[in-house]
Amino acid sequence: MRELTVNQPIEPLRAPGQPPGSAADPVIDARGITKRFGDVTALQGVDLEIRRSELVILLGLSGSGKSTLLRCLNGLHGMDTGQATVLGQPVHGASGRQLRSLRTRVGFIFQQFNLVGRLSCLENVLIGALGRLRGPRYGVLSYSAAMRREALGYLDRVGLADKAFQRADTLSGGQQQRVAIARTLMQKPAVVLADEPVASLDPENAGIVMDLLFQVCLEEQLTVLCTLHQVDLALEWGQRIVGLRHGSKVLDQPTQGLTRDNVMEIYRRVAVDTAEAPA
Ligand SMILES: Nc1ncnc2c1ncn2[C@@H]1O[C@H](COP(=O)(O)OP(=O)(O)OP(=O)(O)O)[C@@H](O)[C@H]1O
Questions:
Q1: pLDDT of the residue at 15
Q2: What pLDDT score was predicted for residue 14?
Q3: Model pTM greater than 0.90?
Q4: What pLDDT does residue 27 have?
Q5: How far is the CA of 41 from the centre of ligand 1 (A)?
């Protein structure tokens, strides 16, 4: 595991309107989440507690339920049973309005970046601010000068200030994911859910993007739950590794002290049947 390079003063975390809680209260608190799609049980009684500023990596074979868990946590999927609280807001049974409000504080980073290709990088970053604005915006000039400066600052932070006025779809995959990270920062989230953020990138760019993503999350004291397929990146970056197998949690341990072999146990027993363990 990498050394943390940023001092992290811990202050009590409170959702708006909530009574003061302890700094030790979990930011993500999921209990017994079960999710089925027809006959397929994607998640089976999953418990997960994540504390403020923790960087947690979620591993498991393809189809083990990783994306479903992320989506249940921000309400994109309803859960069949169980409950989850994120930033003090119950997700189960939440209204559409409550979920939209929660999602303004939960950044989501996608494997395929989800940028608007025909828009400039700067405008894509500005889109991250829409959750704190009223009404739609069309064009960079429809945002305030202060917001444009802020967005430029985030582009600079990810090393792409010189691409601000370039169309997003003219950038490489690694650069596009860096713009997506800047857009997430512009959102000013407290939690980041990242679903295989480097799966579309070559190993060199995967390392660069992971480096950047986790460094800015540390600096901003963000709480991160990130799915990955690369065990080595998980061991390098995660403070804790959670493993899913067939929708059930089979590992949940701090990275420190975990060996690659320990982690490969997540895959090994199924690999006998499926022969599809990762390299
Ligand atoms: N919208 C859906 N409709 C039907 N089945 C789904 C849906 N989403 C997921 N599933 C099923 O739920 C199971 C878990 O899928 P999920 O995408 O969460 O796995 P994953 O671990 O994220 O896989 P990958 O690593 O390939 O992204 C799979 O069997 C999948 O086919």
A1: 43
A2: 42
A3: no
A4: 96
A5: 9
Q: List the 106-109 sheet strands across, edge first.
A: 106-109, 191-195, 223-227, 55-59, 240-245, 248-254
Residue ranges for the chain with pLDDT beneath 70: 1-24, 269-279
The reply to whether CATH 3.40.50.300 applies to domain 26-105+189-279 is yes
Amino acid present at 227: T
- Measured CA to CA, the distance from residue 84 to residue 69 in angstroms comes to 11
Task: Give the ipTM of the model, two decimals please.
Answer: 0.98
Q: 228 C-alpha vs ligand 1 centroid, how far in Å?
A: 14
pLDDT tens digits for range 153-179: 999 999 999 999 999 999 999 999 999
User: Under a CB-based contact definition with an 8 Å cutoff, are residues 74 and 103 in contact?
Assistant: yes
Which one of 35, 39, 40 would you pick to mutate in the ligand 1 pocket, going by the greatest count of ligand atoms within 8 A of its CB?
A: 40
Q: How far is the CA of 206 from the centre of ligand 1 (A)?
A: 23
Q: Among 107, 103, 70, which residue's Cα sits nearest to residue 89?
A: 103
Cβ atoms within 10 Å, residue 251: 17
Q: d(Cα 170, Cα 163) in Å, to the nearest integer?
A: 10
User: Separation of 37 CA from ligand 1 center, angstroms?
Assistant: 9
Quote the CA–CA distance of 63 and 37 in Å, as a whole number: 12
77: Cβ below 6 Å to ligand 1?
no
Give the residue extent of every domain in the chain. 26-105+189-279, 115-186
Q: Whose CA is nearest to atom 11 of ligand 1?
A: 42
